[in-house]
Design brief:
Elements: E1 5-9, H1 12-25, E2 48-56, E3 60-69, E4 71-74, E5 77-80, E6 82-89, H2 98-109, E7 115-120, H3 126-133, E8 137-140, E9 142-147, H4 150-161, H5 174-188, E10 194-198, H6 207-213, E11 219-221, H7 225-231, E12 240-246, E13 249-260, E14 271-280, H8 285-298, E15 303-308, H9 311-319, E16 323-325, E17 329-334
Helix pairs in contact: 5-8
Length: 358
Amino acid sequence: MSKKYHITSFDLSLHKDMLDDFNKRIDRTGLRFDYNTHQLLKPGSKIFQEQIILVEDEEYIRCVAKIKNQNYLLKGKIINFQDIQIPISESIIDRKYLPSNLFFLKNLSNLSKNMHALGMGGVDEPLPKILNKLGFDLFKVDFFFLPFKISSLYNIFINKININLLKNLSFIFKPLDSIISLFYKLNCFKNRNIKIKTFEEFTEQDTPIWEAVKNDFHLIAEKKAENLNIIYSSERFKLTKLRIYDQEEYLGWLVLKITSHERDKYFADEKTCTIVDLCTEPCNYNIFIKTAKRIAFKDNAGVILMNSLNKEFNYFLKKNLFINSNSNFAFASKLENQHIDLDKSWITRGDGDGPINL
C-alpha cells in the first residue's frame, strides 16, 4: 500500500504528539526540532517564522523546517526573501525516507519565487546540492579569521587534528603572544577621535545610515530599526551592539558576539569574537574592523571571525590581516527573473540564526 503524504503548517493541537515521536526517533543524531516560536517571530511581526511539516498517513511526521519571512532590498526593490531554516528529515537515520525528503524540499522550494538558505555546512554538503538541483544558485560565503594569539591558533589546530599529547604545549607560544598583543594594542587604540557607545535598542538615530547605504547593494536585508530590534533582540541573544562616532559624527552601528567555548569541535576552549553585522558607509569599513579588533582585544578573545560575501568589505578584512580560510557557510538563492552581483551584496551570519551560535 502506497503512503499518503501531505505538507502543512505545524499545529500544536494536532501535531504535538507526532513531533515528539519524530524528535525521539532522531534523538541519537543530536538534532531536535523545537516547535516553539519566539514571540518576536510570530505571524503579524515584521519578520516572522512559519513551521512546515511533512505528514505521512496522518500518523507520522517525516520532515520538518522553518521558513523565515523577511524583507530584503533587491536592486532597490523590497521583496519577501524567504529563508529555509533547520530542515530536518528522518532520512538522516533511515535512508528509505530519502524520497520523502526530496518531495518535501521540492515543495518547500515552490512556496515562493524568492527564497534562500544560508549556512548548511558548506557548498559540498547534501542539502545545498539538492537545492542547487531544484533551481537555486549556490555560492560560498567567504570565512575570515584573525588570531590574536598564536597559542589560540595552536589550540584550535591541535583540537582539529585531535592529538591529546600536544594539547598542553600552547604555553611555549606565550612570549610571542605578548609581542603580538603589544602590536594590536598600538594598532587598534591609536585613533583617539573614534568613540564607541554601547546600546540595546535600535532607534530612528540609525535610520539615516541605512538610507545612505541601502542602494549601494544589489541584495541586502532591510535594516530599519524595527527589523533590527527583532533580528538582534536582547531577549533572544546576548550580543554586543555598538554605535561608532568620529568625534561627534555618527558613522554607524556594529553587532558583535563574544563567546566563551567549552570543548567546541572547532574552537576548543577559546573565546571568540564574531562580527555579526554592521551598517556604515564603505569609506568607514576600516574603522569598523579596527573597532571590532579593539573590543575583541579588551574582552581577551583569542580569535575574531567573520563570514561575508561583499568584495569591498572583504578587501578591508584582508588589509587588516584576516585570513581567508575554508568556509562551511553556503548561500543558496532563488530569485524571480533576477541575477545578482553577489560581490556587491551584503550577506553575513546575521542573515540567518547561525551567527548567533558563535
